[in-house]
């Protein structure tokens, strides 16, 4: 990381601290007091030897013993307050960052989630914020305390004997050099550990979420091998850090011992020559004793802070991604719509792709019409739905609702009028009622039952022991693909949207459910504009218009009977093929 980047990260973190600045200043004040007491303690050695022991003064001895206890009591209380304050501040700051990250992530367009794996995002939100929290609640405190103590001690030892201090300081640069060098090495190694453990996490997440495929293709060995490889990489990184950490302590101890030996030797001479008292020397040695740990700790704390900076950098780099699709500043809040949809010479390709998926597509759907889009898979049918939902924006041309370009409308108000039943049924692990009323928080029980009835879901829900309160994903609760799909349809129905977008919504329904669903659909679709993407053509015969899409272009359009009258028409051929298949299937 460059210096400027690092500075930016510090400033950004400070901004998060702003709401808690009063507590932070209080915590810093307590830290100053704690280190003042730390620095005062070796001084009592001097008083003990010079004023109490040599002069044989029992009174001073008693006072000293009592004040020693007093000092530790006060230090304990102050440490508690300061520790608790810092835990309070860091946990709040981290929660703020986590909440911001979560909200930001939700605003990201779908394309963002294609680029960043779920594992990676989860690792940012949990691991990286955890590192920040740990380092700031303990590492930073210890660094501040150690620095303050070090400054205090240096002042005191100068005061006791500057010549001895100068001699001692001779050895300090050596220690500092070592600390710096180690700190740098530790930093790069620990960054690698984090990267490797994020890799392990990502692989684990991917395999667990695709366990059905792993079982289905019996690729256990392959996946175990992949996991083993990545896990070994992570172990290697940890071992390297372990080696560095293990060398760190003995080297620092040796440096410490050299310092103490020098102080003993030179300080002893100064006492013998009458330049210092025995108490001075003992206090001096006491001071050197209390700074060896802080000096030693500083290296690793600096390393930890670097590690936290790397974590913060990763978090901020996600927060800095501007959503490629967002509301205009003057976006229109559309209250009521009639339901007209228009594609005007729409050209669209997915980001990073070369080839256009939709090639100059134009069509118009009047309010209340039912349009069906059919064609081979990969033709771009779902993409049309995605553009109406504004999951993506076209590169040229426009998608209009009631004459408004969807880019001019606020996404929230646009999507309120769209009832989407996507291809992949996604249900949450809550009750059936909550799943159905997901997009309509003020839905009543009647609304939920109405939506379920229309979607032909009421009967199977009603038969369940807990009915609408059944929790999905609970032990023993199993739903078939068709049942899940009907719940998903009810979720769109309950919003009472002016525009219905059904993307292969009936693909998982069995024949009898489907004919019932068709009936219900015809009822519910009255007065609404509907686009049905369908694979099975038998389900869309009643549509006002059918578009046959191939390779991002409309190759045929018309009603079912118009298209069936076309000699060698693509629609007609596909329809006849499917009818034959159905006949064979029913034999
Ligand atoms: P259909 O619904 O007709 O089967 P889609 O609209 O889903 O077709 O997809 C059209 C083409 O766009 C396909 O070739 C598909 O591979 C590609 N595609 C779909 N989604 C993405 C995406 N997020 N990124 C890149 N390419 C995509």
Automatic annotation (TrEMBL):
GO cellular component annotations of the record: plasma membrane
Compartments it resides in: Cell membrane
Keyword Mitochondrion: no
Main localization (coarse): membrane
Membrane topology recorded in Swiss-Prot or TrEMBL: Multi-pass membrane protein
Stretches assigned to the ABC transporter domain: 341-576
Domain of life: Bacteria
One of the Pfam families matching this protein, by short name: ABC_tran
Name of the protein described by the UniProt record: Xenobiotic-transporting ATPase
Source organism of this protein record: Thermodesulfobium narugense DSM 14796
């Amino acid at each position: 990381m460059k210096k400027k980047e690092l500075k930016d990260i510090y400033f950004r973190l400070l901004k998060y601290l702003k709401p808690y600045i009063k507590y932070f200043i209080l915590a810093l004040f307590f830290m100053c007091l704690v280190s003042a007491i730390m620095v005062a303690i070796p001084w009592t050695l001097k008083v003990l030897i010079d004023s109490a022991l040599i002069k044989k003064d029992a009174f001073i001895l008693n006072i000293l013993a009592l004040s020693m206890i007093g000092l530790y009591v006060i230090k304990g209380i102050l440490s508690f307050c300061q520790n608790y304050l810092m835990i309070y501040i860091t946990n709040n700051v981290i929660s703020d960052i986590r909440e911001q990250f979560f909200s930001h992530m939700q605003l990201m367009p779908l394309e963002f989630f294609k680029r960043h794996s779920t594992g990676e995002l989860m690792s940012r939100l949990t691991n990286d914020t955890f590192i920040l929290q740990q380092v700031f609640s303990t590492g930073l405190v210890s660094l501040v305390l150690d620095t303050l103590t070090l400054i205090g001690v240096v002042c005191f030892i100068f005061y006791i004997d500057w010549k001895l201090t100068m001699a001692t300081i001779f050895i300090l640069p050596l220690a500092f050099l070592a600390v710096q060098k180690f700190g740098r090495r530790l930093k790069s190694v620990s960054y690698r550990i984090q990267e490797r453990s994020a890799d392990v996490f990502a692989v684990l997440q991917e395999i667990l979420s695709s366990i059905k495929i792993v079982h289905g293709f019996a690729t256990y060995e392959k996946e175990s091998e992949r996991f083993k490889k990545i896990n070994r990489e992570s172990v290697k990184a940890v071992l390297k850090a372990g080696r560095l950490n293990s060398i760190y302590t003995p080297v620092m101890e040796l440096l410490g011992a050299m310092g103490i030996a020098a102080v003993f030797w030179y300080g002893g001479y100064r006492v013998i020559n009458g330049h210092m008292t025995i108490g001075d020397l003992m206090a001096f040695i006491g001071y050197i004793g209390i700074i060896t740990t802080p000096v030693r700790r500083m290296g690793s704390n600096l390393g930890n802070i670097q590690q936290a900076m790397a974590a913060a950098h990763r978090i901020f780099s996600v927060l800095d991604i501007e959503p490629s699709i967002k509301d205009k500043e003057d976006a229109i809040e559309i209250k009521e719509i009639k339901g007209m949809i228009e594609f005007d010479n729409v050209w669209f390709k997915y980001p990073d792709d070369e080839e256009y998926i939709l090639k100059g597509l134009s069509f118009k759907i009047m309010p209340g019409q039912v349009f069906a889009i059919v064609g081979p898979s990969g033709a771009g049918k779902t993409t049309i739905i995605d553009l109406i939902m504004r999951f993506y924006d076209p590169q040229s041309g426009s998608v209009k609702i009631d004459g408004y370009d969807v880019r001019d409308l606020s996404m929230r108000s646009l999507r309120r009028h769209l009832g989407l039943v996507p291809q992949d049924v996604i249900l949450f692990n809550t009750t059936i009622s909550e799943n159905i009323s997901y997009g309509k928080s003020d839905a009543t029980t009647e609304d939920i039952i109405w939506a379920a009835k229309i979607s032909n879901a009421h009967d199977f829900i009603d038969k369940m022991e807990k009915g609408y309160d059944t929790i999905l994903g609970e032990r023993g609760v199993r739903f078939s693909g068709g049942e899940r799909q009907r719940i998903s349809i009810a979720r769109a129905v309950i919003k009472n949207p002016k525009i219905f977008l059904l993307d292969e919504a009936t693909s998982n329904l069995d024949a009898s459910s489907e004919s019932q669903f068709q009936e219900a659909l015809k009822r519910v679709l009255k007065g609404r504009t509907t686009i049905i993407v369908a694979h099975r053509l038998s389900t869309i015969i009643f549509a006002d218009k059918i578009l046959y899409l191939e390779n991002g272009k409309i190759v045929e359009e018309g009603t079912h009977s118009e298209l069936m009258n076309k000699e060698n028409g693509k629609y007609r051929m596909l329809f006849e093929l499917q009818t034959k298949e159905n006949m064979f299937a029913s034999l």
